[in-house]
C-alpha cells in the first residue's frame, strides 16, 4: 500500500508530474476531422472502446458527411452501419435526433456551449466537455470517463462515485491549465497499467503514493471491494 501525500492538492500535483513524464504525447485517441465527426465519435464511444469506434467511423464518415444526411438516414440503415458498437440502435437514434437539431436549430453547426450541447440527444456533460475541448478549444470542465472515475478513487483523490460529483471534486484540486490533459493522462495510465481488473502495481509510477496499491492494500478504493 502506498502512502498518499498530505493534501489532495499535493497528491494531484505529484500524479500530474509523474504522468506527464510517463505519457508525454497523451491526447485524444478518437479519429475525426471536424466537429460533427468528433461529436458522433464521442456519442458512439460510450461504453465502447475507442479502437472499435475508430474502425466503425472510418466507413461511417465516408457514407455520411452533413447533419442533414445523418438526420435523414433511415434508422435501420444507420443502425446497421454501426451494429458492432454497443447499444447501436439507441446510438443511431441519438445521432439522427442530435443531427436533426443541429441542422434545424443551429444552422448545421455543432454548438459551442455546454447548455446547447447537452440539449442534444445522447449528449451528457462528459460528451459535451470532449466536444468543447477538442472541437471548440473551450475548456470549462474535466471529462470524467470510466478511467478517470477508477483512478481518482484508487488514488484517494476523491471518494465521490458519480461522474458529476467526481468532476466537481476534481475542479477544486486540478489546476485549470491541466483540466484537459488530466483526462488524457488518466486514460493512458488506466489502459496501460491501472486496468480495472488486474492493475500492474509493480510497474506503476504512482504505486508509492497510491492507497490502493497491491500487494499491501486490502481494498480497491475504486470499487470498495477487497483485492
From TrEMBL:
Keyword DNA damage: yes
Residues in coiled coil: none
InterPro entries in the cross-refs: DNA_glycosylase, Endonuclease3_FeS-loop_motif, HhH-GPD_domain, HhH_base_excis_C, HhH_motif, Nth
CDD domains: ENDO3c
Cofactor dependency: [4Fe-4S] cluster
Domain of life of the organism encoding this protein: Archaea
Keywords: 4Fe-4S, DNA damage, DNA repair, DNA-binding, Endonuclease, Glycosidase, Hydrolase, Iron, Iron-sulfur, Lyase, Metal-binding, Nuclease
Protein family: Belongs to the Nth/MutY family.
NCBIfam families, A to Z: nth (TIGR01083)
Main function: DNA repair enzyme that has both DNA N-glycosylase activity and AP-lyase activity. The DNA N-glycosylase activity releases various damaged pyrimidines from DNA by cleaving the N-glycosidic bond, leaving an AP (apurinic/apyrimidinic) site. The AP-lyase activity cleaves the phosphodiester bond 3' to the AP site by a beta-elimination, leaving a 3'-terminal unsaturated sugar and a product with a terminal 5'-phosphate.
Protein name as catalogued: Endonuclease III
Lineage, uppermost ranks: Archaea, Methanobacteriati, Methanobacteriota, Stenosarchaea group, Halobacteria
Amino acid at each position: 500500500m502506498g502512502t498518499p501525500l498530505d493534501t489532495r492538492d499535493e497528491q494531484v500535483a505529484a500524479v500530474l508530474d509523474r504522468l506527464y513524464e510517463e505519457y508525454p504525447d497523451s491526447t485524444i485517441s478518437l479519429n475525426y476531422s471536424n466537429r460533427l465527426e468528433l461529436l458522433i465519435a464521442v456519442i458512439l464511444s460510450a461504453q465502447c472502446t475507442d479502437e472499435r469506434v475508430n474502425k466503425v467511423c472510418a466507413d461511417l464518415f465516408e457514407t455520411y458527411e452533413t447533419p442533414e444526411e445523418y438526420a435523414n438516414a433511415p434508422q435501420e440503415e444507420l443502425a446497421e452501419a454501426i451494429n458492432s458498437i454497443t447499444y447501436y440502435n439507441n446510438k443511431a437514434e441519438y445521432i439522427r435526433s442530435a443531427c436533426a437539431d443541429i441542422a434545424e436549430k443551429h444552422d448545421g453547426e455543432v454548438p459551442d456551449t455546454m447548455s446547447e450541447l447537452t440539449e442534444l440527444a445522447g449528449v451528457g456533460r462528459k460528451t459535451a466537455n470532449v466536444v468543447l475541448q477538442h472541437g471548440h478549444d473551450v475548456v470549462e470542465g474535466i471529462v470524467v470517463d470510466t478511467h478517470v472515475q477508477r483512478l481518482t478513487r484508487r488514488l484517494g483523490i476523491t471518494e465521490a462515485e458519480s461522474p458529476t460529483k467526481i468532476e466537481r471534486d476534481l475542479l477544486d484540486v486540478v489546476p485549470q491549465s491541466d483540466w484537459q490533459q488530466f483526462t488524457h493522462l488518466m486514460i493512458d495510465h488506466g489502459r496501460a497499467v491501472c486496468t480495472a481488473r488486474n492493475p500492474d502495481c509493480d510497474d506503476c509510477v504512482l504505486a508509492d503514493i497510491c492507497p490502493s496499491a497491491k500487494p499491501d492494500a486490502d481494498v480497491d478504493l475504486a470499487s470498495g471491494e477487497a483485492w
